[in-house]
Design a protein that fits this description.
It is built from five helices and six strands. The chain has 144 residues and is an alpha+beta fold. A hairpin with a 5-residue loop joins β4 and β5. The radius of gyration is 22 Å and the shape is extended.
Length: 144
């Protein structure tokens, strides 16, 4: 079956409902009002239209890691406020995803997780020793 294209009258008939959905989204979904780069702390700080603020380390975000502070400061906000864009870095991040702790694609997030798993700290070393003293990681049980 081929693609079905909408006629002009069909498109026109859908516009009022689309505008109502967009208005509901503007009120209920997080939208960026402003954004800036804080070079002292290495954070991207976003102000939402509801007055709330949040920030995240630039190094965590796909396309921003290793970028020069001047480039990180060149943040554009999409007209809808749904996304942040860095033209010269060719990076785009959705505000809703950032609020959920999603800083890039699934592959990017997997790599962040792997890097965290490889991290060494005194607390992680101590926890591993305590677990080892209890007999280590439990063996996987085979399914009957």
């Amino acid at each position: 079956m081929g693609k079905r294209y909408l006629s002009d009258p069909e498109v026109q008939a859908q516009i009022p409902a689309a505008r109502r959905r967009a208005q509901r989204a503007r009120v209920s979904e997080p939208r960026a009002k402003s954004a800036r780069y804080d070079p002292v702390r290495g954070l991207i700080v976003v102000e939402l239209t509801n007055g709330a603020f949040f920030g995240f380390p630039a190094r965590l975000a796909q396309g921003l890691r290793g970028a020069a502070p001047g480039r990180l400061a060149e943040i554009e906000i999409s007209p809808s406020g749904e996304a942040l864009h860095w033209e010269r870095l060719d990076a785009d991040l959705r505000v809703g995803a950032l609020l959920q702790g999603v800083f890039g694609t699934r592959a990017w997030m997997r790599e962040l997780g792997r890097a965290g798993g490889r991290a060494r700290s005194a607390a992680k070393t101590q926890a591993a020793r305590l677990n080892g003293a209890k007999g280590g990681r439990p063996r996987k049980r085979s399914e009957p």
